[in-house]
Model the fold of this input.
Amino acid sequence: MKHKDDEWEKLVRQEPFAASPFTEEHKQNVLRQVAWLKSGSAQEMSNAGVKSAEPKKLPNPHRRRFRSRRAVMAYTTIAAVAAAVILWNGQIVEPVIETVYPTAALQYTDDAGMSLLTDKMKKNVAVTMRDYLGKQLRITKVQDLPVSGRVYVEAGKEGDEEYALIWLDAATGNLREVQMRREMAASELEHRYLRQVPSLLQNIGGDPALKPVSAKRYVGMKQGELEPKSYTTLMLENEKSYGEIIWLQDEAISVSGDLDLKQVSQTALAYAEDSIEAFTGNADLDLISTHRTKDDENGRDIITFSFENNYYVQTSEVTLGINYAVIDANSYQKDYTTWEEVEAYHEKLLQVKESTLREKLEPVIKKLFKVDLQIYKLHRNTETPGIVTFELESTGDVFQVRYNEDARITMITRDANL
Done:
């Protein structure tokens, strides 16, 4: 049977909120806020506010009438805000209940361990989920860990997209460790992130018209750290290209997106085309896209030229210089089902002769970088079969090479101050 809307629900769907979706989740938030407003905590707050604003010189009868009118006004104002459901692109901007009294929004299962949570623990859990994860998840388990002096709180289910583990100090109620994650539609992401998207993409020469698609958030805090760190990743795309933005707390630390060819250095593009020709022996491979990732956290600025047939040229500007890579991303390995098969394949890789590798590499290296590979010394590492390095020890110039069991070269990288 179809649910019959209450009158207040009909009002919310009218202007100025008509363009914003009003979901069942929004409705439940409103109902929780109204329920809280009717509770003793809300009444105490209203009375406290009225008492502080009460004129001191009015006669007693006047003061009683004034207090009564102010209490009604305060209650009505807060209730109106809650019932209206302040929306921004379909989101509740600042739910009253979670802002003013965060523990009132905590949800619990009937786990017996809930009694272990003190008021301070409840507040720390509520505020941590609200401020860092952006959502209060239902607490499913609370456990005492007497050996470590902690109380363990689990919210959500381990296999779900929304999940949280919080460890609290049993004596003080303070946070000790935090692990939380959340996946959401782009429309659920806070507006303070979404409003940054066009300018961040423009700053790297990307397409500001990319549309947010989905977002992920991870929150972590290790023993000894003062506060949790929240990483938010937003995926973007349109019919032509894609991008990604990562924030640490509220600061963008990595921005990536496809570039218009007008934004690309023609010298760099010509070098990439020459590199692919030298690497593949084919001068007719078309350029598919050019992608840039500006990673401020790790101090890298990466330009990737993607050619047809899964070939790539990548230039990475880092603190110590420039790294250059030519990559064949096609898979030439067989699918192995046992560890014995994997070990046999690794043994074949280790048995590829140095002379064979040099014969394959020397003409490519000479054409790409104008250097003689003969003066570079080869280093093998049995822990990384299929990867070797060639180093010019007098300068620290290094090539790293990845190859298959038939000596097919699948990647060449150079780490140097080019």
